[in-house]
Amino acid sequence: MTATAIAACVPSAEFVKHVTYPEGVYLAPGAVFEKTWRFRNNGECPWRQGTRLVFVEGEQMGGPDEVEAGPLEIGETMDISVKLTAPSANGRYVGVWQLRDAQDRPLGDPVRVVINVGPTPTPRPTPTPTASPTPLGPLNMTVPTLLPGSCWVDPNTGTWGGTLVWQAFGGTGEYHYYHGDIKPELELSGPRYEFTGQVNRRFGPESFFTVSGDEVVKQDVIIEYPPQC
C-alpha cells in the first residue's frame, strides 16, 4: 500500500465479544468493576496513535471520558477496559462507548455496558439436574465493597466495622466463598463478610476468594477509615 493510500485509508473496527461482565449482569450498589470489550481491526489500514474508546451517552458510572485504544495492526484483536462503579440506587443502567480515531471518526458500531443494580433475582425451582452444570464462561467476581448503611463506629470500645458484599458470575453457576484462605473452616455462608477493626486504622489488606468447579478468583481489599458508607 502506497503512502498516499495509507493516508486516505479510513480505519475500521469490529466488536468481537464481552470479555467481562456480560450485558444485564447484577451488581451490588457501589460495586467497583472493570468492563472489558474485545475488538478486531477489520479494516485495510492500521489503527494509529490517537485511537481511543470514548464515552458517548447514557450512564458513565464514574468512568473516564476516554481511554487509549491504539495502535493496532490489520487483522489483530485488542481488549479495551474501563474501570467503572455501579450507581448507588437500584435499577438498570446503560452506558454507550464508541471507538474513534485521531480525526474523531467513528470506528465500527458503538458498544454498551449494561448492568442491573440490586439483588440477583431468586431463580425459579427447577428439577434436579442429571448432568454436570454447564459452564457460564470464565469465573469472575466483583471487588468486595461496603454495603450502604452497614458501617458503624463504637467510641466506647474504639472499634468500627461494616459488611462487605460482592457478586460472582461465570464458572459452573455454583459458588463457594472464602476469607483469608481456601480452607473448610474459612468458608463463608455467602458473598458477604462482616468485619471489625480498630478506630483510626484501615481494614486490610484482606483476601477474598470465590471457587466454582476447578476455577478460583481472588480479590484483595482495603477499606480506609473513616468508612464511606
Describe the structure.
- This protein has 229 residues and is mainly beta.
- The protein folds into two domains: 12-117, Sandwich (Immunoglobulin-like); 140-223, Immunoglobulin-like, CATH 2.60.40.
- The chain is 3% helix and 44% strand.
- It is built from one helix and 18 strands.
- It has one helix at residues 3-8; strands at 14-18, 25-27, 32-40, 52-58, 66-68, 77-85, 91-100, 111-117, 140-141, 145-146, 152-154, 159-165, 168-169, 176-179, 187-188, 192-198, 203-212, 215-223.
- The strands form five sheets. A five-stranded mixed beta sheet has the order 2-8-7-4-5, with no helix packed on it.
- A hairpin with a 7-residue loop joins strand 14 and strand 15.
The largest β sheet comes out as: 5 strands, mixed
Would you state the CATH class of the largest domain?
Mainly Beta
Question: How many DSSP helices?
Answer: 1
Q: Indicate the overall shape.
A: globular
Question: Are there runs of 5+ residues with pLDDT below 50, and where?
Answer: 1-6
Strand order of the largest sheet: 2-8-7-4-5
Number of strands: 18
Helices and strands, in N-to-C order? HEEEEEEEEEEEEEEEEEE
Mean pLDDT reading: 89
Over all CA atoms, what is the radius of gyration? 21 Å
User: In which range does the helix fraction lie?
Assistant: under 10%
CATH topology of the largest domain: Immunoglobulin-like
Q: What is the count of distinct domains?
A: 2
At the fourth level of CATH, the homologous superfamily of the largest domain is: Immunoglobulins
